[in-house]
Write a structure and sequence with these properties.
Blueprint lengths: L3 H8 L2 H20 L3 H8 L4 H14 L7 H24 L5 H8 L1 H22 L3 H8 L5 H27 L5 H22 L19 H8 L1 H31 L4 H29 L1 H18 L10 H30 L5 H15 L1
Helix pairs in contact: 1-9, 2-9, 2-10, 4-7, 4-16, 5-7, 5-10, 6-7, 9-13, 9-15, 11-16, 12-14, 12-15, 12-16, 13-14, 13-15, 14-15
Length: about 375
């Protein structure tokens, strides 16, 4: 029996395959630099939970800058823009290596400021280039391969996250220090630079700048805004993403601060959730093809809402909480990723080819605002 991840990867043509290899390095980097480990790191250096909430807001808030990047995407092309910004964001993240010095020389508060600065710089540089992601993806992935591509991308990402989470768990152990997190950040920066180098091997992504045509200007936004079904889709999906974010942003802190799980245990629970996604996402893709993306997305969202309500039955101090939270986490992870994948796939299918930069930027803005 073939493994779905491998068989689906083999069905794709070369350009989507190369984009998936880039995504692999990118996931390793992302999850090491601004994934859940940054929450654990913040708490390790005694950063207050309110500061961590502020830190977590940097990513979606910085994405609002995407609205101003149409001239960059069209003039320089997604390829050149993303390569430059992907290198730049990893250099920005390297500021975290000043944290040991800040702790020693100026105390914990200085270390918090360095961490905030590193994450904010990473997010701002990324926001300058991420507007090229979906237009380039729309270019290199043929329409007939889009279903397979997005299912494979999600499965591959979850496999990478399982690997990196288990590795992080082994590095951190039960009582990690700052040096353990520095190792994780070093790995993330190297993986990020590798992802930028691999982008050079992905075809397409050339400049489309032409001042005589409206798709090279902010008029693309006007065309997308007039597409009322598309705007309703972005608005509805944004509300749902916001609902997902309430759970995602609080669970790690809940496990660490309310249930007093150690970092190793938290990382292992998260690995189980990502493994669940890896084993099921292929079947969500097949279900969407047979029953429609809309029905599959509604089912995933309703299921996640039920799982979210289930967390209310897992209070600190209850004897069953420690046993039932891991399977509840796995279920919510599976349904969260299913909804996320289905909606992104549908978005790529309905954007207007002529105005794709405006369409995809409005999608990025809508989801960023909701988060």
């Amino acid at each position: 029996m073939p493994i779905p991840l491998i068989s689906d990867f083999q069905k794709l043509s070369q350009p989507p395959r190369r984009f998936l290899v880039f995504s692999t390095f990118n996931v390793f980097s992302w999850f090491s630099l601004v994934g859940p480990v940054v929450v654990l790191f913040g708490r390790t250096i005694d950063m207050p939970a309110s500061w961590i909430g502020f830190l977590l807001s940097f990513m979606p808030l910085s994405m609002l800058l995407v609205m101003a990047t149409i001239p960059l995407v069209t003039r320089f092309g997604p390829k050149r823009l993303m390569i430059v910004t992907w290198i730049g964001r990893n250099l920005a993240a390297s500021l975290v290596f000043f944290i040991p010095w800040a702790l020693h020389a100026h105390g914990a508060r200085a270390a918090w400021i360095v961490l905030l600065t590193a994450v904010l710089s990473f997010c701002l540089v990324r926001a300058a280039g991420v507007g090229g992601w979906f237009p380039w993806l729309h270019e290199v992935v043929p329409e007939k391969e889009q279903n397979t591509f997005f299912s494979t991308e999600t499965a591959l990402a979850q496999f990478c996250i399982v690997v990196v989470t288990l590795s992080q768990a082994a590095i951190l152990g039960k009582d990690p220090g700052v040096s353990h997190f520095m190792v994780i950040y070093a790995f993330g920066i190297v993986a990020g630079l590798m992802s930028a180098l691999w982008l050079a091997r992905v075809p397409g992504g050339k400049s489309t700048y032409n001042p005589e045509f409206p798709q090279s200007s902010f008029d693309s936004y006007r065309a997308a805004w007039r597409d009322r079904p598309y705007i309703r889709f972005v608005f509805t999906t944004g509300i749902c993403f916001s609902c997902l974010a309430w759970i995602n942003s609080s669970l790690v802190l809940y496990m660490r601060d309310a249930l007093h799980f150690n970092d190793l245990r938290i990382m292992l629970i998260m690995s189980a959730g990502n493994l669940g996604v890896l084993l099921t996402i292929h079947f969500w893709g097949r279900f969407a093809e047979q029953s429609g993306t809309g029905q599959a997305a509604v089912l995933a969202m309703v299921g996640h809402s039920c799982a979210a309500l289930g967390y209310l039955l897992l209070p600190p101090g209850a004897p069953w909480t420690a046993w039932l939270l891991p399977p509840a986490f796995v279920i919510s992870c599976v349904l969260n990723s299913a909804y996320w994948t289905l909606t992104h796939r549908h978005m790529i299918q309905i954007v207007d080819e002529e105005h794709k930069v405006g369409y995809t930027n409005i999608w990025i803005l809508g989801t960023a605002l909701s988060l």
